[in-house]
Amino acid sequence: MNSKVSTKVEQFSEKAILVLPVLLTPKEAAHRLKLSVSWLAKARMRGDGPAYIQLGRAVRYTETALLQ
């Protein structure tokens, strides 16, 4: 019975687990932070505020950046 358990653990550890971060729009981020979208835009221009990712013209925030 132990050999079956160890085989399953080995199979699990061999598989790569890919966790993609949740990307939020400025509107969603503002709602979670209880701030305005305008405040986030101004913070981006000043260089402060939460870290963001720019994909072309789209701005996205990760949940971890909002928690920090």
Task: Outline the structure in words.
It is a single chain. This protein is of the alpha+beta class and 68 residues long. It contains four helices and three strands. Strands 1-3-2 form a three-stranded antiparallel sheet. The mean pLDDT is 86.
Structural class: alpha+beta
Radius of gyration: 19 Å
Strand content: 5-15%
Write down the secondary-structure element order. HEHHEEH
| Discrete helix count | 4
Low-confidence stretches: none
Number of strands: 3
The major pleated sheet works out as:
3 strands, antiparallel
How would you briefly describe this protein structure?
With 68 residues, the protein is of the alpha+beta class. The protein has 4 helices and 3 strands, in the order αβααββα.
Task: Give the topology.
Layout: H1 2-14, E1 23-24, H2 26-33, H3 37-46, E2 53-55, E3 58-62, H4 63-67
Antiparallel strand pairs: 1-3, 2-3
Helix pairs in contact: 2-3
Key phrases:
single chain, 68 residues, alpha+beta, three-stranded antiparallel sheet, 53% helix
